[in-house]
Design goal:
three-stranded antiparallel beta sheet; 208 residues; Nucleoside Triphosphate Pyrophosphohydrolase; 3 helices; 11 strands; single chain; 2 domains; alpha+beta
Length: 208
């Protein structure tokens, strides 16, 4: 038996949107269960995100420290951002986020992994890229605001991030998934065996 996620959609008999925010909304669906009963399911509707594990020639990962109000923590993270435009090419979005948050560009891009962050309560899908062959971006730095105005930037050895994840010291999901996935790739077939940067993404289809 192949261990592989498969698409499936149960019948929805009614849908409402009790809340609509600037970037996300909350939806309530009435869903028909396999036994014919009906239940309601509330979940956050999310446009999707991209994240970038940027690895330099010294084996260090570019990380950012940012305040996250919902969890009341300042977290170390990898560059990430929303898919602002429906159907946006996720590679282009990732390149934009790396430039805006770190003023860095990369010549080599691969898909590291795709995840649903909290599938029990949100439809957010995230594509995490591996970016290598880094260099400083040209031109002026992107002007940041709000929480991003107070960000710290660092380059940390991959092994130190793995240690922090397993010690319960680092909690951002994209960072955790990214550094553990890269470690697994390096120990397995190597990063050159990863999917190409514009590999299909059924969760958020896009035009190349």
């Amino acid at each position: 038996m192949a261990i592989k996620d498969t698409p499936e959609e149960w019948t929805v008999t009614a849908t409402t949107t009790p809340f609509t925010g600037n970037k996300t909304s909350v939806r309530t669906d009435e869903v028909v269960m396999p036994d014919g009963s009906r239940v309601t399911r509330d979940y956050q509707v999310h446009p999707g995100s991209v994240a970038v594990l940027a690895l330099d020639d010294e084996g260090r990962v570019l990380v950012l420290r940012q305040y996250r109000h919902p969890v009341r923590h300042r977290l170390w993270e990898i560059p990430a951002g929303l898919l602002d435009v429906p159907g946006e090419n996720p590679l282009h979005a990732a390149q934009r986020e790396l430039y805006e948050e770190a003023h860095v560009k990369a010549e080599d891009w691969r898909v590291l992994t795709d995840v649903y962050t909290t599938p029990g309560g949100c439809d957010e899908a995230v594509r995490i890229f591996l970016a290598r062959d880094l260099s400083e971006a040209e031109g002026e730095r992107f002007e940041v605001s709000e929480e991003e105005a107070d960000m710290e930037l660092a380059r940390v050895p991959l092994a130190e991030l793995v240690r922090g994840v397993l010690a319960g010291e680092l909690h951002n999901n994209c960072l955790v998934v990214g550094v553990l996935s890269l470690t697994a790739a390096q120990a397995g077939e190597g990063v050159d065996a990863l999917r190409p940067a514009e590999a299909p993404w059924p969760a958020r289809p896009f035009a190349s």
